[in-house]
Give the backbone structure.
Amino acid sequence: MQSLFFSHLLCAFLLLFTLLNLRYLTAEAAKCHPDDEAGLLAFKSGITADPSGMLQSWKPGTDCCSWNGITCLQGTRVTALDLSGQPQNSTQVLSGTISPSLSKLQFLDGVYFLNLRKLSGPFPNFLFSLPRLIFIYIENNRLSGPIPENVGSLAKLQAFSLQGNRFSGHIPTSISQLTQLSQLRLGGNLLTGTIPLGIQNLKNLTSLTLDGNQLTGTIPDIFASFPTLYNLNLANNKLTGNIPTSILSLAPNLRYLELGHNSLSGQIPDFLGKFRALDTLDLSWNQFSGLVPKTFSNLTKIFNLDLCHNYLVDPFPAMQVKGIESLDLSHNQFHLVNIPAWVTSSPIIYSLKLAKCGINLKLDDWNPAQTYFYDYIDLSENQITGSPFKLLNRTEYLKGFYASGNKLNFKLETLKLPKTLKDLDLSRNLISGKVPNAVAGLQKLNVSHNHLCGQLPKTRFPASAFSGNDCLCGSPLPACK
Ligand SMILES: *[C@@H]1O[C@H](CO)[C@@H](O)[C@H](O)[C@H]1NC(C)=O
Ligand SMILES: *[C@@H]1O[C@H](CO)[C@@H](O)[C@H](O)[C@H]1NC(C)=O
Ligand SMILES: *[C@@H]1O[C@H](CO)[C@@H](O)[C@H](O)[C@H]1NC(C)=O
Ligand SMILES: *[C@@H]1O[C@H](CO)[C@@H](O)[C@H](O)[C@H]1NC(C)=O
Ligand SMILES: *[C@@H]1O[C@H](CO)[C@@H](O)[C@H](O)[C@H]1NC(C)=O
């Protein structure tokens, strides 16, 4: 019985092997479907500049399934078109417009045009003639004009991203018909109007990002039934009103809640303390007032907390977080006196911004558990005394140190500047001594309004970076006597 089974298995393998070989032998001859080739070549002819040669392999008469950016999964039919530049690489761009002939690619299920930056023109209407389309990622290009009113007819879509273009006008109400969507990303455009209520129909959403537009009105109270939403980003708009109560329904899963840079007001709701999975909370640059809820002590997994530029008052709750990575409480009405213990003990912190937080410690007495990962430290506008010598001596990656408007009192030439440092603002303190040569390597410097003296080293900084000291001289200040 068993041997019979194995001989069948062997036969099956032989057959498969033969088939694979046949396919291999005929591969030379196999070509992608002529419609797909024609559609892609028409796209190429609409591209006016391709400096990095992204479309170099797109040659007539060769198998288009082997071209850069092309995937064929249905034999000879193109199923995905993926042209992506690296976000940082300015040579990887495409200029030109998107040919409507791409509608010939009837088996496409995914269109990815990422970071091409100079690709322009209106919303590409060929997308409406592709029956199998489920993924659209058209990100960081220069497409403009309205999002078509009938966008809801792309009913199979599971991901729809127009992030980082120049689309304008309102978000069409028909978006409510895209009920299969798991990702809706329209951030970084010029969209106006309100957030459509119909978004509440998109119950499979995991990520909703509308940040960086000009959306107005309140945040609609539509979040009661998004069982899988983990990312909600409405930052950098013109939204007003309170945080709606239905957001509480997102508590079990939400990891990123970004509402910064709007005109939201009222108290920060107590229920935010129930968001046990929250990794990032950004409520910065709004008009929130009153206390930060005590319930925040239950946000044990939070890594990034940004509450800067609001009207929040003392006392700040004692957080139970194991390690915060970035914290910004600047420009509220806090009087923290000390840098909070849960910040000092964080083993992973890299960005600390506590400007105008009513801190009056002696900096030499601050003993953070970890300093090596710091990128940015902003302690401006406090009453901090002493010297940053010990702190700066223990950083390896620091890019910016900002401590203007304090009572720091030390000799500037004793400071060891980390090699990575680019910005240093120590203006309006009680610092004495000379300006060391090492500052010449910085990108920004401000040591104005201290008690510095002596000849300035040769630098590119303007006079206002040095003004208001006791007896500094030499360019850009008047020559030494
Ligand atoms: C940018 O892209 C071009 C072409 O793909 C490549 O040759 C170059 O090395 C890239 N530059 C960087 C900094 O990645
Ligand atoms: C949501 O996703 C599930 C599976 O992940 C699927 O069965 C269901 O049909 C989807 N619902 C909607 C409204 O698309
Ligand atoms: C933290 O959560 C626990 C359990 O849900 C609750 O009993 C406690 O009151 C919460 N703490 C605060 C300060 O809200
Ligand atoms: C500065 O750092 C060096 C190297 O980490 C260390 O040897 C030295 O003791 C430090 N100086 C002070 C005053 O902390
Ligand atoms: C330096 O700081 C002073 C006072 O804070 C400000 O007036 C001046 O413009 C600043 N200069 C530079 C170059 O940043």
User: Anything to note?
Assistant: Residues 1-7, 9-29 have pLDDT under 50 and may be disordered.
